[in-house]
Amino acid sequence: MKLGKFCLSLSVTDIDNSKHFYEKLGFSPVPGCGSVEAKWLIMQNGTNMIGLFQDMFHGNIFTFNPKDVHKIQDELKAKGIHLDKEAASADGPSHIMFRDPDGNVIMLDQI
Description:
Shape: elongated
Structural class: alpha+beta
Strand content: 35-45%
Distance between the termini: 18 Å
Helix content: 10-25%
Number of strands: 8
Oligomer: single chain
CATH architecture: Roll
Order of helices and strands: EHEEEEHEEE
């Protein structure tokens, strides 16, 4: 199962403050992937990616960007993994969400 690129999605209280903090660690905004004004922003340092999200969800989320979320959804269901959110459509970009045994949220987001 190919999960695609990994990005840790962080729930932040002040996106501008968080942006400046992660810039000090060498991260920079990915062009065209959100903004401080939109209250979400994807940042990158080499191959490491983080998403900063203010007031969008509670807690941090492990995010992967696969090429075909629908195929993976079928595979997960066949393996007995409960999905908290299934794909909204039968094809095209969508996302699914589920949890690991400790309750950590995992999102597969086909963009």
